[in-house]
Design brief:
Nuclear Transport Factor 2, Chain: A; 5-stranded antiparallel β-sheet
Length: 430
């Protein structure tokens, strides 16, 4: 007599999808940032109120599948409430951090987006940070996605009806300005995300692969500065495209790079959804440590307040308006609240900086200080006022407001039990 192994519902190898029908897929319009989050909803075949959810984070740079979670939400079961809360928590976290709108996409586009990410999840990819735990996770995610694909195939759903470009456009911002086109194109090119770079450009893919900007390997765009030029100074090859002069700072594995070039669009500064038609590289230079520090330094506006013990022990960010809905992260020196802007409009600027997607920070330190920080004066004033006007306001004691040219806030976050004055003693702002 032969025996076979029957997988239970708690097993990773149990095919939950066989009990459900595909219902919908929500996605973030963030493909131009190099990532996309998906929430896939399945309806119970024999239990119409039952739902099965997948929350997936796709990365088109190094990892392919950056996060993969499943939630079995069957009303009437002991786990229903907790699983639904956990699913919403993870989905809200992704959508809150990524900044893009959430849209419904067809299953064919969903599958095509997953298809485009899977090669990057392979074991043969050279990654800067990786370990056996991450490798095991990706193996698990790939196995579960294979099961999902088989279930969809049985329902007659495939990726055949959606091209790669159509799938990317379904999860990309619409009607973006000229500065955003340039910044997104540079982001995707230096990240060696050639699928997205090609979507934004009419330049041949092989030319993009061989570009000097992509030679240092995968890089992150730290800052850019864009200025309008003219066809007399920088004549285009096609005679009609509009030139823009750019300088950028990027960070790769070997360090920071400073590059200058002229980029051409088929539309002027007022155009929407323009295409990059030409890229003329001036220079790509590796920066010294000192030059790197100068390039990436940003001034910080800080407000420091003393909190009594009773506030620290029961602190709830919901009572300070900008912190409402923000989950704190534990850091060596306390609890860090990161407040993100609601969209990615910071990309459509002639002066782009990587941290501009963050509105500001609040750090509740082990030593009893509430430290607010933003890189913009108007935003620190808003955070300051919100704290003072909150229910905690009467119990907070102002220790000082500071403008610091050399970044220190994140050092404070990671200096265990340090007080602000332990790190620096600048002259307070008037």
């Amino acid at each position: 007599m032969g025996f076979s192994i029957v997988e239970g519902r708690l097993s990773d190898k149990y095919d939950h999808f066989a009990e459900y029908d595909f219902m919908s897929c929500q996605a973030t319009e963030t493909r131009l940032m190099g990532v996309v989050a998906l929430k896939v909803t399945w309806r119970g075949r024999n239990k119409p109120r039952a739902r099965y959810y997948q929350v997936i984070h796709l990365d088109y740079s190094e990892y392919g599948i950056d996060e993969y979670l499943e939630f079995d939400c069957n009303p009437g079961t002991d786990t229903y409430k907790q699983n639904k809360e956990d699913m919403n928590y993870h989905w809200d976290h992704f959508t809150g951090v990524m900044g893009g709108d959430v849209v419904n996409i067809p299953p064919s586009a969903m599958l095509r987006l997953i298809d485009m990410a899977i090669p990057l999840a392979g074991s043969n990819i050279d990654r800067e940070y990786d370990d056996s735990t991450n490798e095991e996770f990706r193996e698990y995610a790939l196995m579960r996605l294979d099961m999902m694909r088989e279930a969809l195939d049985r329902q007659g759903i495939t990726s055949d009806l959606c091209s790669s470009e159509d799938a990317m456009r379904a999860v990309s911002e619409k009607r973006i300005g000229a500065y955003a086109v340039i910044n997104y194109f540079i982001m995707r090119l230096v990240d060696r995300d050639f699928d997205a770079a090609c979507m934004l450009s009419s330049i041949d893919r092989s030319e993009l692969r061989n570009s000097e900007l992509a030679e240092p390997g995968i890089q992150t765009l730290i800052k850019s500065s864009i200025s309008k030029s003219d066809i007399k100074t920088d004549p285009p090859q096609d005679g009609t495209s509009y030139p823009f002069r750019c300088t950028i700072t990027t960070l790769g594995r070997a360090g920071y790079y400073h590059s200058s070039f002229v980029i051409y669009l088929d539309g002027d500064i007022r155009s929407r959804d323009a295409t990059v038609t030409q890229l003329d590289i001036g220079s790509v230079l590796k920066l010294s440590d000192y030059e790197s520090a100068v390039q990436v330094a940003r001034r910080e506006y800080l407000t420091v307040m003393q909190c009594p013990d009773e506030i620290i022990n029961g602190f709830d960010g919901r009572y300070i308006a900008p912190l409402a809905g923000v989950d704190p992260t534990m850091v060596p020196n306390g609890w860090l609240y990161t407040i993100y802007n609601k969209d990615n409009s910071h990309v459509n600027r002639k002066e782009y900086k990587i941290g501009d997607d963050v509105y500001g920070y609040a750090l509740l330190t082990i030593g009893g200080e509430l430290v607010l920080m933003s890189n913009e004066l108007t935003k620190i004033n808003m955070l300051d006022n919100a704290a003072v006007m909150s229910v905690y306001g009467p119990y907070l004691t102002l220790k000082g407001r500071y403008l610091i040219e050399t970044p220190i806030f994140h050092t404070l976050c990671h200096a265990h039990a340090a007080l602000f004055e332990d790190l620096i003693e600048p002259a307070p702002q008037d």
